[in-house]
Amino acid sequence: MWAELLGVERVGRDDHFFALGGHSLLLSRALDLGLKLSTADLVQAPVLKETYVENSAAATAPQCSWSAIRS
């Protein structure tokens, strides 16, 4: 999902959302696709694995296919 959203071939769990070209409009698109993540969540933890860990700790893990994210 992240690779398609960001328009890149591959996204790793250690990749930084904004360094890959992510921005608030893309985040809005992800939310429209059903990702359970707020803008604040991604700004506070822009490295994708950190975003997942932060949300897991808060019991609000994003609903996406993490198996598609490679390290």
What does this molecule look like?
By secondary structure, this protein is mostly helical. The protein has a single domain (2-64), classed as Non-ribosomal Peptide Synthetase Peptidyl Carrier Protein, Chain A (Orthogonal Bundle). The chain is built from 4 helices and no strands. It is globular. The two termini are 15 Å apart. The model is unreliable at 57-62 (pLDDT under 50).
Descriptors for this entry?
Non-ribosomal Peptide Synthetase Peptidyl Carrier Protein, Chain A
Please indicate the percent range of residues in DSSP E strands (runs of 2 or more).
under 5%
Task: Please provide the count of β strands.
Answer: 0
Query: Can you tell me the residue ranges where pLDDT is under 50 for at least 5 consecutive residues?
Result: 57-62
CATH class: Mainly Alpha
Topology:
Layout: H1 2-6, H2 24-32, H3 39-44, H4 48-57
What's this model, at a glance?
The protein has 71 residues and is mainly alpha-helical. It has helices at 2-6, 24-32, 39-44, 48-57.
